[in-house]
Amino acid sequence: MKTKTKGKKQRLTVDKEAFSEESTVRKKELVKRLQHKERRKGGSKESSKSTAARAKHAWSNTDRRLRRLESNERERQRMHKLNNAFQALREVIPHVRADNKLSKIETLTLAKNYIKSLTSIILNMSNGHFPAAEGTGGTSGSKLQQQYQQQHGDGGHEESVKKYSMPIQSFSQSSHS
DNA sequence: TAGGCCATCTGGTCCT
DNA sequence: AGGACCAGATGGCCTA
């Protein structure tokens, strides 16, 4: 995977037509984009979606533009909140690359494995190795285990512990050095 | 330079 | 009706 060191990206927002000077690098980039676009589209088809959407509300162009800008702003805020949540998640899961930012997919995958391994540890402890869970009535370890096995099948936690143990070990090594 | 990751825009759909 | 949510499109930045 890759390291991410870039800062906040400068966004060309509404005024896309505002950039007029184009370096050769940029031109090449545009060509690349076009090719990429063509590959994705697989042909040109004019959709009637936008016109149908426009017909739905009898707003003036200005109104429509204004509403669009407002909902863009809301969407931006929503995505920022989502990214904050991702960042919070990154901070609570131990991982090897303390200096480099985990990608979103890496964060989710690691978090999933982390939860699995913690669940396994809890199950192991409550299954005879954890005195507090024995003979106290209430939530027994076996109940927990039954519930876990119903959802994940038998022996799933062994594997998840293995899967996650390597990153955790690496993390603890790097944090102690 | 290709490809991965990301932010943003956009229109459709769902929910309150 | 309006906001939240979602997925597709687009384009910028970065690394191998």
Structural account:
This protein is mainly α and about 180 residues long. It has 6 helices and no strands. The two termini are about 25 Å apart. It binds a DNA duplex (16 and 16 nucleotides) through helix 1, helix 2 and helix 3.
Q: How is the biggest beta sheet arranged?
A: none
Secondary structure category: mainly alpha
So how many helices?
Answer: 6
- Rg over CA atoms, rounded to whole Å, is 26 Å
Helical proportion, percent range: 55-70%
Q: How would you describe the shape?
A: elongated
Mean pLDDT: 59
- Element-by-element helix/strand order: HHHHHH
Low-confidence stretches: 1-56, 131-141, 154-162, 165-177
DSSP strand count? 0
Distance between the termini: 23 Å
| Strand content range | under 5%
Topology at a glance:
Blueprint: H1 24-41, H2 49-56, H3 61-92, H4 104-129, H5 141-152, H6 156-176
Helix pairs in contact: 4-5, 4-6
The protein binds a DNA duplex (16 and 16 nucleotides) through residues 1-6, 8-14, 16, 28-30, 32-33, 36-37, 40-41, 49-50, 52-53, 67-68, 71-72, 74-76, 78-79, 83, 103-105.
